[in-house]
Amino acid sequence: MPDAPPSFSPERIDTVFTRLAAANPAPETELAYRDPFTLLIAVVLSAQATDVSVNKATRTLFTVADTPQAMLSLGEDGVRDHIRTIGLFNTKARNVIRIAEALIRDHGGRVPSDRAALEALPGVGRKSANVVLNVAFGQPTIAVDTHIFRVCNRTGLAPAKTPAAVEARLDQSVPARWKQHAHHWLILHGRYICTARAPKCGSCAIADLCAWPDKPTGGPTGGPTGGPTGERRQDGDARPAARTGKGPVK
Ligand code: SF4
């Protein structure tokens, strides 16, 4: 990765989130879930897998097992049968059962709402805990995944060498009023606009704020090296508004 650009001023950060919020006022996770338990399981299954593939698997898994006890009754082999299409399915099936056991044994069958207890569960790291704390319990945590890490370094929003360092910078610099949804705004921006290989700078609501040295400068041809084909949108009407999360399965 080239040298990261300097981080944004507080005013610039506020403008970034003002624009992302205008485009998508209430962003949601794209993982399908019913309650904190199914969210936790979906998050654990989503490691190195797409949300689409996880949703496809959990559509049948949660039909037969959407509580810790039901998951235990289904058993590791049964869980594995539902998630075979997901990467690392053997390890994940084992962790799902161990999580169900731990929730019943240590937490009365409920998902804990504190970080230490979540991170003590098998297969649950800081990023997964942050997602559960944010989505299930409304805490203003920011889970730095590959999309957020890329966006923060590429744009200069919160450049740092590790996800943990990016999270720390965001935690320090994102205004309180944007914290709750910052995680989803940045993920959706990275997933659909500021993509890894061909960022859609011509459709980017924060293009004029972005410090990426390789972004197009408004040339007549399309693509990230030659300038966007269309008019650069700077009115806050970002494309992620059309790609909002599916929200809970009810
Ligand atoms: S201008 Fe391009 S590189 Fe910068 S944030 Fe937008 S999509 Fe990403």
Task: Write structural notes for this entry.
- The chain contains 10 helices and no strands.
- Helix 8 (146-155) crosses helix 10.
- Helix content is 50%, strand content 0%.
- It has helices at 10-23, 36-45, 51-64, 68-83, 89-107, 115-119, 126-135, 146-155, 163-173, 176-192.
- The longest helix has 19 residues, at 89-107.
- It is mainly alpha-helical and 250 residues long.
- Iron/sulfur cluster (SF4) is lined by residues 154-155, 193-194, 199-201, 204, 206-207, 210, 212, 215.
Relative helix content: 40-55%
Give the averaged pLDDT, no decimals.
86
CATH superfamily of the largest domain: Helix-hairpin-Helix base-excision DNA repair enzymes (C-terminal)
How many structurally independent domains?
Answer: 2
* CATH architecture classification name of the largest domain: Orthogonal Bundle
User: Ligands bound here?
Assistant: iron/sulfur cluster
DSSP strand count: 0
Strand content: under 5%
Order of helices and strands: HHHHHHHHHH
CATH topology of the largest domain: Endonuclease Iii, domain 2
CATH class of the largest domain: Mainly Alpha
Low-confidence stretches: 219-250
Structural class, please? mainly alpha
Main sheet properties: none
Q: What is the overall silhouette?
A: elongated
The first-to-last residue Cα distance is: 42 Å
Tell me the Rg in angstroms.
19 Å
Tally the helices.
10
